[in-house]
């Protein structure tokens, strides 16, 4: 490896350092994220088949019971100390009503009871997850994708992937643009890297998309993005549920958290009179323009203090997520949010998340996501095959600290200072990315120390 000296070399060596050497160490995390994403994208139909006994009604003879009667039946099946968190009425004539509850023994888990609207039979009971209400199979894969089953700190890995994925796409495109004439040769040594490049170019738009939406939905960077949206009045509108006029809107730092569970839930069971509120709120929803077949009803802990809420759950195009806050004492709407009135940033966030999880455009959305994930896996495999066939592990590791040293030598003080300042400032937006840069420098120093010690032992 020769030391670059021209001014242009600072850009070239920066690109290679970011894309090749950083990629070598970060790519395994991207591989895991892509693999779990592919598996997640393949499971909706499988999960629907697996849990069809819970969700599907085989016979629709007769008239469906009132929603209040269905909730009353579900309430009798609750374990001691459990309380209803939300209700999702049957969305079609052939689906069951879901009653979601929490148990005091497992306050971090949500369980759903599935009630047949025609017979009031309990057709199943299973854990579900978050606002989307997915079943255990997808819950497991979702946690693998987001945090490797390591909880909050495991989300460092997924945010690391989202932080680097877009940068790898951009630097890879720039390197291809500079070297595209060289890659037209038939040199067999370049066969593997050519495959990596062509596949990377095919999936480049999706890599940028995954990076942007992943950061929006991430833990630390996502919170910072939500704060920026708040500064520009781009928050996702939220209902005010207080009946005394006090605003209880969710803070900007919480609005990116789609999996957040309600904090003001009801602890007591519903009386016969209170059960009728469920029938009333559905009527209020339909008379106030909520036309989506799937609704989500969240009761409050005290109807004299807080309103109930009802929200549309149509995340497939066209998006329908309008919501109402209803004072159940008078069946009166006190607040509402309409998706048509969302600021553009809130709409883009909603659509981006729904695209990312594969629900916005149905099976076509799923297919694109799965194919993109598979292409990313293949591109990573070709990259490692090229690296190892041409260089080997030892050369890659030793070349890493050499390349960082060349980078420092090739740049002017202004160039180096600008990059360092940019990296430091990035901490306030994408902190995991900044910390990974520092970690890579520490790794380079450790490699250098090992190389020096190895040479001293050889001489001795």
* Main sheet record: 4 strands, antiparallel
**Helical run tally:** 13
Q: Give the total of domains.
A: 2
Query: Averaged pLDDT, please?
Result: 88
Helix content: 40-55%
Task: List the main descriptive attributes of the protein structure presented here.
11% strand; 8 strands; 2 domains; alpha+beta
Mind explaining what this structure looks like?
By secondary structure, this protein is an alpha+beta fold. It has 2 domains: 7-44 and 147-220 and 361-459, no CATH class; 62-134 and 237-341, no CATH class. 55% of the residues lie in helices and 11% in strands. The protein is built from 13 helices and 8 strands. It has helices at 7-50, 52-55, 67-76, 136-147, 155-179, 191-216, 220-231, 272-287, 344-356, 362-390, 393-410, 413-426, 431-459, and strands at residues 83-88, 97-103, 106-115, 122-128, 295-298, 308-312, 323-327, 332-337. The strands form 2 sheets. The protein has a 4-stranded antiparallel β-sheet with strand order 1-2-3-4. Strand 3 (106-115) and strand 4 (122-128) form a beta hairpin. The two termini are 27 Å apart. Residues 1-7 and 250-263 have low confidence and may be disordered.
């Amino acid at each position: 490896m020769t030391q670059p000296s021209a001014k242009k070399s600072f850009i070239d060596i920066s690109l290679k350092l970011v894309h090749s050497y950083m990629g070598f160490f970060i790519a395994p995390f991207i591989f895991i994220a892509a693999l779990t994403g592919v598996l997640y994208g393949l499971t909706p139909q499988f999960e629907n088949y697996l849990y069809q006994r819970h969700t599907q009604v085989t016979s629709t003879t007769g008239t469906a019971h009132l929603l209040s009667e269905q909730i009353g039946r579900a309430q009798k099946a609750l374990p001691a100390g459990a309380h209803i968190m939300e209700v999702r009425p049957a969305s079609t004539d052939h689906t069951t009503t879901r009653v979601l509850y929490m148990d005091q023994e497992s306050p971090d888990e949500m369980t759903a009871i599935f009630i047949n609207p025609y017979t009031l039979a309990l057709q199943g009971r299973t854990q579900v997850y978050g606002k989307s209400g997915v079943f255990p199979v997808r819950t497991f894969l979702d946690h693998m994708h987001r945090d490797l089953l390591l909880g909050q700190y495991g989300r460092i890995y997924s945010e690391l992937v989202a932080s680097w994925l877009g940068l790898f796409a951009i630097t890879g495109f720039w390197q291809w643009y500079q070297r595209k004439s060289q890659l037209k040769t038939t040199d067999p040594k370049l066969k593997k890297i050519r495959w990596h490049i062509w596949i990377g170019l095919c999936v480049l738009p999706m890599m940028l998309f995954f990076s942007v939406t992943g950061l929006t939905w991430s833990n630390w960077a996502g919170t910072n993005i939500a704060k920026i949206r708040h500064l520009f009045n781009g928050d996702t509108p939220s209902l005010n549920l207080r009946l005394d006029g006090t605003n209880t809107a969710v803070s900007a730092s919480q609005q990116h958290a789609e999996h957040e569970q309600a904090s003001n839930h009801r602890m007591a069971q519903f009386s016969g009179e209170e059960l009728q509120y469920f029938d009333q709120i559905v009527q209020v929803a339909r008379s106030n323009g909520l036309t989506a077949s799937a609704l989500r009803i969240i009761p409050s802990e005290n109807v004299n203090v807080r309103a109930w809420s009802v929200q549309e759950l149509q995340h497939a195009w066209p998006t329908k997520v309008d919501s109402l806050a209803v004072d159940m004492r008078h069946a009166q709407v006190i607040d509402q949010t309409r998706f048509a009135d969302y600021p553009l940033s809130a709409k883009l966030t909603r659509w981006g998340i729904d695209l990312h999880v594969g629900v916005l455009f149905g099976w076509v959305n799923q297919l694109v996501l799965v194919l993109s994930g598979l292409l990313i896996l293949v591109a990573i495999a070709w990259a490692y095959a090229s690296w190892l066939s041409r260089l080997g592990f030892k050369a890659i590791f030793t070349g890493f600290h050499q390349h960082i040293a060349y980078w420092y030598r090739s740049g002017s003080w202004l160039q180096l200072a600008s990059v360092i300042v940019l990296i430091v400032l990035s901490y306030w937006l994408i902190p995991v990315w900044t910390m990974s840069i520092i970690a890579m420098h520490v790794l380079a120093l450790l490699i250098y120390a090992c190389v020096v010690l190895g040479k001293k032992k050889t001489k001795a």
